[in-house]
Amino acid sequence: MSDPVPAPVREATASALLLSRSHGQWLVGLILHPRYRVWMASGGHVEGSEAPADAVRREVREETGLHVQLVPGPALPAPAGWPHPSEPAPWWTASVAVVPDSHTAEPHIHIDHMFLALVDDRHEVLGEQGEADHPLGWFGAARLQTTPAVGPDFRALALDVLRRLGNSTASDPEVLAAHLVGTTEPVPASAGDGAVAGSCER
Q: With a threshold of 0.85, does the pTM exceed it?
């Protein structure tokens, strides 16, 4: 009898689509990954005792030089008297199969906690990133659809977020979260919109 195949290693990661309004329209900020040469959400591994929300703030700061406010993901309100503080909820949690990387020498799984984040400082949006590890690009819907190097999984998410944002002018994360939750269901992806395996890699 052969030995059972071991389950793949599963590692916690956290990422964020960055959001900002410019000249009356919403834009999504993506980083250009230096190894994969793909535009993707900023993020990386959750380290040590970090919460995913803390990890994504740290990763965004390291990779882009930007400070952000997380837009709280959908969650039921806690009942009266609930004694535990809340952590910001991600908007999506995805299980992503990835190739070997600097953390793990064999194929493995990233459990990616995926957030939305507002950029705090308007000057930073205009390109004054400070100390940053990766190039940052800002994408409206047209640029997302015409830039081949955008990871197709992130393209699908970003286009849906931009559609949901619509003409909202909210600048408060809580108000923006309520607007996003109140929008209609996402448009189904066509058969040709599948993600390239590993495009969420860190």
A: no
